[in-house]
Amino acid sequence: MEIIIMGSKTSCMGAIILLSMLFMPTFIHALMAPEIRELRTKHRLSSLLVFGDSSVDPGNNNRITTTMKSNFLPYGMDFVGGRPTGRFCDGKLGTDFVADAIGYASTIPGFLDPNITKEDLLHAVSFASAGSGYDDLTSNLTQTISLSKQVEYLKHYKIHLEQYVGHKKANEILRKAVILLSMGTNDYLQNYFLEPTRPKQFTLDKYQDFLVSRMRLAIEEMHKVGAKRIGVVGVPPIGCMPIVMTFTGDGIHCVDKMNKAVLSLNSKIQKQMEAIRTQLNMKTIFVDVYNIIESAINNPKKYGFSETTKGCCGSGSFELGETCKGAETCQNPDEYVFWDAVHPSQRMYKVLADEILKIFPTTFFY
């Protein structure tokens, strides 16, 4: 087993690419969906289970009492039927694209969705909650579903599976499921750099260690439930988010201080994933979303983007959630890296999903 680090600039990545060229030439280019589905069937990949924040919440927050919602237009304007679902995006999330490519579902339902079916439980489910983080305090500040609570929901999920397909089959489904975990942004933006509690308790370096320890604890709990395959999405370049550039920068250039804090945290997450791979005997990947988004910002034409400093919603400088509600939007969201002042556009999520799918086969199908 190996850990694959997407977008890393280390010599380790160079070695991995070289090995891939020598032994797995069919994966140099992104596989088409039919090929991925064939591999999924051959290697009996059972389902996709998602944990995290607004980057992967398909609408669980619609079912709880919190102000962190997006179940109103213009959110969802490019979703199927042009309807808002609770996704903080104009359309689909990256995990929706991944699930669709693998053949699990065209979109991933939230675990709290009252319309979720038994069949959905077999293929793809998201436990994510917008506003959450590795630090439970982050979730408490916004009254959202903490990571520890999301893991508790995984245990309830297993009970539902056992009632539906039996104990043995439920264990098999969890053992062969892929778990994706995506959070960390809110721990900085809503917590450490905004609220006074954690800075009084931790230096920035020690807070990063604390976040990684919470991530490790959650993964250990997932492992106890039966998880064997997990991908962790790193924290994006928050210093390049329009809202951060507007309030802590000049509105045009990325805020270096913020991005350095992200790079340090991502490095620690990556190292912990290596430890988890060996110590818990899990198949793991680290998705370097930082470098993917940074690449799109620095080379927009390569990805078909024309706007990298503002979101599509409203002025694009500060609108998010309620402040985006009913606002006018840009003419073509696909030309924007960001949908609102924080979240990527559907087009950017598609780019992220394509990068994830490039490494799925080499790690989770073998």
TrEMBL record:
Molecular function via GO: hydrolase activity, acting on ester bonds
Domain of life per record: Eukaryota
Pfam hit, one: Lipase_GDSL
Family: Belongs to the 'GDSL' lipolytic enzyme family.
Protein's name according to its UniProt entry: GDSL esterase/lipase At5g45950 isoform X3
Species per Swiss-Prot/TrEMBL record: Spinacia oleracea (Spinach)
Organism ancestry: Eukaryota, Viridiplantae, Streptophyta, Embryophyta, Tracheophyta
The gene coding this protein: LOC110803871
